[in-house]
Amino acid sequence: MLINFYKLFEEFFEDKDKIKEKLINYTRAGYLYKVINSILISKPEPFVNEVYNNHLICQSLFKHSYSKSVSNIIQTILVTI
Description:
The chain is mainly alpha-helical. It has five helices and no strands.
């Protein structure tokens, strides 16, 4: 288990179980991409397992894939497998 894993993705949620409907902040998404990329370099397996085990995170990433940074996060996760 990664410490504060779910805190990384709180930008995508209104509540714990509800995906945010409005547009995300592109600057925050860019910083999130940098953080996630660093985590994937150091601990790829636990991170990818956590993402795949939480369907809401996967759904939120795909819902907000209009952002280039979020698309890059999805691509990085897929390539890491």
